[in-house]
Amino acid sequence: MTEIRGSTPYAEISAGQRAALALSDLREGLASWPVWLLLALNDIRQRYRRSRLGQFWLTLSMAVNVAAVGFVWSYLFKLPIATYMPFIATGMIMWALISTTFNEVSVAFIEARGYLSNSRIAKSTILFRVILRNLIIWLHNVIILAVVMIIFPPPQYWTVILLIPALLLFAINALWIGYVTATMSARFRDIPPILAALVQVAFFITPVMWRADQLPPHLWFITLLNPFSNFVSILREPLLGQVPDPMNYVMVILITLIGYAIAVPFFALYRPRIAYWL
Amino acid sequence: MASVDLEHVDVLFPIYEARSRSLKNRLVQTVGGNVGQSADHVVIEALKDVTLHIKPGERVGLVGHNGAGKSTLLRVIAGIYEPPRGRVNISGKVASLLDLTMGMDFEASGYENIMLRATMMGMSYAESKSIVPYIESFSGLGEYLHLPMRTYSSGMQLRLAFSISTAQNPEIILMDELLTVGDSDFMKKAEARITEMIQDADILVLASHVPEVINRFCNVIVTMEGGRILDVKKNAA
Fold first, then answer.
1. For the segment A153-197, what is each residue's pLDDT rounded down to a tens digit?
2. Which of A14, A97, A176, B67 could form a disulfide with A138 if both were Cys (CB 3.0 to 4.6 A apart)?
3. What is the pLDDT of residues B14-65, one digit of tens each?
């Protein structure tokens, strides 16, 4: 295997060449799937090494959380447990996926400093590792979703297949967010705490624990404009036996397109400098 | 055929932590590249106008003070740093033995680390599996390979890292100091393996402070200072 590589100085490179280099980073990242698969699996193994229950602590702690919040809140707010419990379980589990992925992609390059400053590994590989790691963690919580669905059956089950495009759209968006936030964080170390605070606020203003229809009707548009809430809808509603509002898909696709329109030139411009910032 | 070509390469490091530098420090500075001051950050000129052409069969020894730019030059050839100015063309399969433990997880077992490191080096799952018996015998770690790497002594950690890192036959080898690890028995074995690897490769670029090492392995000596190449000469030995 012979590798031939040339580099044009990035000070005198055209925008088109830059974009081509960014795309080849993506291609290399996709091609090195054994690397990110192994790294993602090892990340999870590492977290729970020497623990008896191992990664099932992920499931257990989430189950305890969901049960506690579900029972207490349905009692406090006098909501029927049969509808509130599935609502809370899906909300908390999907929010955990969204918020942790969002926070972790932003520190992906900083965290992978050892790799990025000692080897020629594609930046995309590092982002894929973080996204996959979070999807694997989410898979551990599928058990809880299944149990909740058995105890409190949804009106219909076929909608569950809508989860597949939703997860795919989620991962595709996590990637562009990573290209932007991980790059910015490598240069400005204040970005990760700012983003973490933002996600914290987003949790309260996004209908995760409360229903959008609890808002007065003239304010519903707010949830449509909140990017997080569109992702929560397409990821959660299929599990409640509902088909998400087409407007949610329209918004998500719009976010994807705008996101890449920003992320590609941004990442293309700053990609060669990341190694210097770490 | 492998080749390494660098033309007028500059590498600048922006350092954002250093807010102010005293005049005194500036006056007593005797090592490293030029440290310039930009508006809000310090810039280190790690490489300045470096032009270097390495042909197959050339074993290049990089010599110079600490901070002369040797490691940066190795990292540019490895493709880690893309220079803001100048051209870099590398052809051939590169093995950068700059950080042997790169990609290893000290909580993971020796066997898990073989897979991790080998995958990071670009081997497929099957290739990684296939080098396991070789590493078992070469490292001599035996039962320790089942234990987490953090339980190893530092010499044993290096033995493992060395064994995996040298389980490849690259065309271009990049090394920061000759890898000599372990006790005297292992050192002999390691040196034999390194020598063999260097002979099989087309190009070696080795940075070292040890004149005997440079003399023994290198036929071209590149002297660097302050990020520049001062001198390139043939080494008869």
1. 999 999 999 999 999 999 999 999 999 999 999 989 899 999 999
2. A97
3. 887 655 555 556 566 666 766 665 556 788 889 999 999 999 999 999 999 9
Residue A148 lies in a domain: yes
> What is the least distance, in Å, from the CA of A276 to any CA of chain B?
6
User: In this complex, do A42 and B85 lie within 8 Å of one another by their Cβ atoms?
Assistant: no
Q: In terms of residue numbers, what domain contains A162?
A: 15-42+53-277
Q: Please give the average per-residue pLDDT across B109-138, as a whole number.
A: 92
Cα A17 to Cα A13: distance, rounded to the nearest angstrom: 6
Residue of B nearest to A187 (CA): B16
Complex ipTM, two decimals?
0.84
Per DSSP, the three-state class of B232 is: strand
- Spatial distance between the Cα atoms of A203 and A206, rounded to a whole number of angstroms: 5
Which domains are present in chain B?
A: 3-92+207-234 (3.40.50.300), 97-201 (3.40.50.300)
Which residues in chain B touch residue A3, judged by CB atoms under 8 angstroms apart? 90-94
Q: Looking at beta carbons, which residues of chain A come within 8 Å of B108?
A: 42, 45-46, 49
Question: How far apart are the CA of A277 and the nearest CA of chain B, in angstroms?
Answer: 7
Q: How many CB atoms lie within 10 A of CB A149?
A: 18
Taking CA–CA distances from B114, the nearest residue in chain A reads: A38
B91, A4: Cβ pair inside 8 Å? yes
Structure token digits, residue B23:
């005049």
Q: Which residues pair with A28 in a beta bridge?
A: none
Q: Using a CB-CB distance cutoff of 8 angstroms, which residues of chain B are in contact with residue A119?
A: 78, 80, 96, 99, 102-103, 120
pLDDT-derived band at A2, boundaries 50, 70, 90: very low
